[in-house]
Write a structure and sequence with these properties.
- With 272 residues, the chain is of the alpha+beta class.
- It folds into 2 domains: 74 residues, Arc Repressor Mutant, subunit A; 181 residues, GAF domain (Beta-Lactamase).
- A hairpin with a 5-residue loop joins strand 8 and strand 9.
- The longest helix has 17 residues.
Length: 272
């Protein structure tokens, strides 16, 4: 018998199902389940989520690992999306109209401010960085393409939290609040309670932007503004990051430029 998890013997044949291949459909169920899990998963967790025997899930995972779509942590043995899957996701997000519309403006912001600029859109686990433009003097951070940003304590995340479609991100907000409460975390303007989140979101919507300073992440300051669709919801967020504390001043030229560009993109670049 072939060891190939997509072989006829193992997967019950390559019969067409709605124009597809049954074994491939089943394998992709495993990959989709892994993508939707908030943390790296064990084999048994994935098997339960997919309602498949662990032995079958393991063979699918082995093929995905060989293709670079899945990775396995050496110490825990847990599975997570691999670099290949991240690259596919970034490529798909990069083809969104709003990403293409905003891309040219990012360099304009970098040149005008001397700071690093990123563009994020909503992914399956939160805001995902799909464009990242650095200046020669950029602050060294762990940010990079494919990074998923937190909602509660990042300027980008706060934009989606305040301006995003709430039903789409409610579970993520509740998860971060619960984790922060368990760890007894708090921030200068936020406690890990849903009513505190709602109060902050109201302030952010009134201000039209979000800012975090070095009290949130030492040495890093950031301002972010939304690119809105016709319903007034965030399609994307553009964020400027710098080691300069003056960046978060409400009167800063960088903030004025950022808000102006996002307003223009909201009118002309967001999808309807």
């Amino acid at each position: 018998m072939s060891a190939d998890p997509f072989s006829e013997e193992e997967a019950g044949g390559r019969e067409a199902t709605r124009g597809g291949i049954q074994s491939l459909d089943m394998a992709l169920q495993v990959l989709q389940a892994l993508a939707r899990m908030p943390q790296p998963a064990t084999l048994s967790e994935l098997a339960r989520r997919c309602d498949m025997p662990p032995s079958k899930v393991h063979r699918y995972l082995a093929s995905f690992i060989n293709a670079g779509l899945v990775g396995q942590r050496h110490r825990s043995g847990r599975y997570e999306l691999g670099r290949g899957a991240v690259e596919l996701g970034i490529a798909a997000m990069g083809r969104l109209d709003i990403v293409n519309s905003a891309a040219d403006r990012l360099e304009e912001i970098v040149d005008a401010t001397g700071a690093a600029v990123l563009l994020a859109v909503w992914g399956n686990q939160g805001p995902v960085v799909v464009r990242w433009h650095r200046h020669a003097s950029f602050v060294v951070t762990s940010l990079g393409l494919g990074t998923t940003l937190p909602l509660l304590n990042s300027a980008t995340g706060r934009i989606f939290m305040a301006f995003g479609e709430r039903r789409m991100m409610a579970a993520r907000i509740e998860e971060e609040v619960a984790r922060a409460a368990k760890l007894k975390l708090s921030w200068p303007d936020l406690t890990p309670k849903l009513r505190s989140v709602e109060a902050l979101c109201a302030k952010l919507r009134q201000a039209g932007y979000a800012a975090v300073d070095g009290r949130f992440i030492p040495g890093l300051n950031a301002i972010s503004a939304p690119v809105l669709n016709w319903q007034g919801e965030a399609e994307a967020a553009i964020t400027i990051t710098s080691g300069d504390r003056g960046l978060v001043d409400p009167r800063s030229p960088a903030l004025s430029l950022l808000r102006g560009i996002c307003a223009e993109l909201s009118t002309h670049g967001a999808s309807s």
